[in-house]
Amino acid sequence: MHTVLIVDDSATAREVLRAILCEEAGFRVIGFAKDGHEAVEKAKELHPDVITMDINMPGMNGLDATREIMIEAPTPIVIVSASTRVREIEASMEALGAGALAILLKPPGPHSPKYAALAKEIVKTVKAMAGVLVIRRRRRLKTNGETNVVRELPDPPKRGKIQLVSILSSTGGPPALAKVLGELPANFPAPILLVQHMVPSFVAGFASWLDSVIPLPVRLACDHERIEQSCVYVAAAGSHLGVTRGSRICLSDDPPIDGFQPAGTHLFASVAEQFGNASAGVIMTGMGRDGVDGLQRIYDAGGTTIAQDEATSVVFGMAKVAIEQKIIGSVLPLDQIGKQLQRLVH
């Protein structure tokens, strides 16, 4: 039985989460915390299997608490936030960068029509994250300079010159994407289409946050919009993302694929159909097998396929399945994916 520490300044929210996790999923709640300071102390004292963390709390907020816990007592953390305002979502994204594993929408009371679906997602995510091995973060120290280790990249497979890049990520994706896309210059000579599995209410805030931390402009994809190089297009909530023959965005309300809408498989299949061997597909950290069937289409069309390696993935799920299917040209650590993309477009 997994143990959980619930962190939230609202007694009502704590009780709702307790009921969901204990009565519906069999977790054992071993403690509650009302603010970040208390969360850090109880994480060190109780050693829970997983922590649910609110963001907006008095005193030490959830972002700072996450940073401290990942330094003092590394524990899987799931952000559970009630706010969909951009500022709070950006703080949640920073918490993911500090070591939290996922972000979910805080459920309303049990009489709400949204309660059942949100509760199911919380149970599924918290249960999965309780088994993730997390690493201790180091406290940042001021230094006079840092030495970067430069590693030689393998030559890209000899396929077509890339005209469009498509990326799929899920659990652990936002900070990983910030790392990969942050390596690309503002004049990157290809458009980038992105599917990030995420609670729909957070997608717009995620795009705004990503736009603020990488050189390339980031925007939510709009139907029929012409795609331009040097721009990242994020799949909108509730619609599959694809491209047309005329290099325009095509949003589809087709049913979910492998439980996802937007789905990576739809994106990759669309890109393969329109760009063939001039397409690249990147599958990154995350649970399940979304994207694999679509990536097969890119591979069969002569395009370039890249998977994030196990060592740098928060959850080695989608990429693992793609590698086992033998449809991946390069398996790379996180700090090499952006560099490889730069080589592929020149």
Features:
single chain; 346 residues; alpha/beta; Rossmann fold; 11 helices; 35% helix
Describe the overall structure.
The chain is an alpha/beta fold. Helix 4 (86-97) crosses helix 7 and helix 6 (173-182) packs across helix 11 (334-344). It is built from eleven helices and 14 strands. 35% of the residues lie in helices and 18% in strands. It has helices at residues 11-23, 36-46, 62-72, 86-97, 115-129, 173-182, 203-213, 264-275, 292-300, 318-324, 334-344, and strands spanning 3-7, 28-33, 50-53, 77-81, 102-105, 164-169, 192-196, 218-220, 232-234, 240-243, 249-252, 279-283, 304-308, 330-332. Helix 10 (318-324) links the parallel strand 13 (304-308) and strand 14. The longest helix is centred in the middle third of the chain and has 15 residues, at 115-129. The strands form three sheets. A seven-stranded parallel beta sheet has the order 8-9-7-6-12-13-14, sandwiched between helices. A five-stranded parallel beta sheet has the order 2-1-3-4-5, with helices on both faces. Strands 10-11 form a two-stranded antiparallel sheet. Mean pLDDT is 92; it is low at 142-153. It folds into two domains: 3-129, Response regulator (Rossmann fold, 3-Layer(aba) Sandwich); 164-344, Rossmann fold (3-Layer(aba) Sandwich), CATH 3.40.50.180.
